[in-house]
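Before the break, one more example. Copy the sequence into your notebook; we will annotate it together after we see the structure.
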Amino acid sequence: MKKYTLALVAILLATSLWAQPVTNQTISGNECWNAGQGPGGPSQFLCINQVRNGTALQLFSGAGTTPTTTMTNQQGTLYWTGGAATTWAIVLPNPAFDGEIVTVDTDTTLTTRVTVTAATTPQNQTTTSFAAQTVTALTPVQWQFNLATLVWVRLR
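Here is what the structure looks like once it is written out:
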């Protein structure tokens, strides 16, 4: 009798632990989690594009002077499409995580119209000068952040 009782308990336990099917297996790319370092440590949002080594693509278009684009960690690639803007000012993400990559690209050559700068708050970031530069169609410009030096290094 004791063996039957143990077997019944084992069967009930096994069926209650049986994995339930996942109903939604599609990831949109906008999912984020609040991740922290140790108990009570600092935390920030960690988004799926960072986990899967992808970058979020944001499209821009229009004519004339565009508002300054102040990037967040959820933006990785800024892409200008269509007619050329008069000016396009971009501020790199701050704070940024170590190894973060930012890409600026276009399907229309933006001749001496793009300025990219690093913000100084909360991290005192720096980058190489990129003021009133040309971004040639389908020739991306890219920076990667080094947390140890707080420098956005130009890759291409």
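The two ends are 75 Å apart (CA to CA). Residues 2-16 form the longest helix (15 residues). Try to locate both features in your own notes.
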